[in-house]
Prior knowledge:
The protein is mostly beta strands.
Amino acid sequence: MARNAPYNSFNFLLEIDGIAQANFTECSGLDSTVEIVEYREGGENTTVRKLPGKTTYSDITLKWGTTDSRELWEWHRTVIEGNVVRKTGSIVLFDLAGANGNNSNEVARWNFVNAWPTKWEGPSFNATGSEVAVETLTLAHEGIERV
């Protein structure tokens, strides 16, 4: 029987080649846009044809609570030093089967290719607050596909 209810967005995992960082609190930017190229044909004065053009992909933004892990920062630092290391990765969505101590089931996967970090943002600090210190990394990539 097909599932009618949508999946929850909080039970996900990010896999990136060679990086074991886990516990991301947010992942956004999973989209693509196909440019519209308008074309007028001779003799067809009332209608403009719309053809598909180039496809662009938004940057992926990742947020996580600051820990002692430096893997994502080190990857970004290699780019700052002029050595762009591109990686492939996946965002994996799970069902809630694991909420009771069982293993969760993978229900969707989005693979991205040729990603590299374009921006890293450190946490904001406030001595009167009690929020978790959060880091942000923005990844440029050359394609995403749901598999």
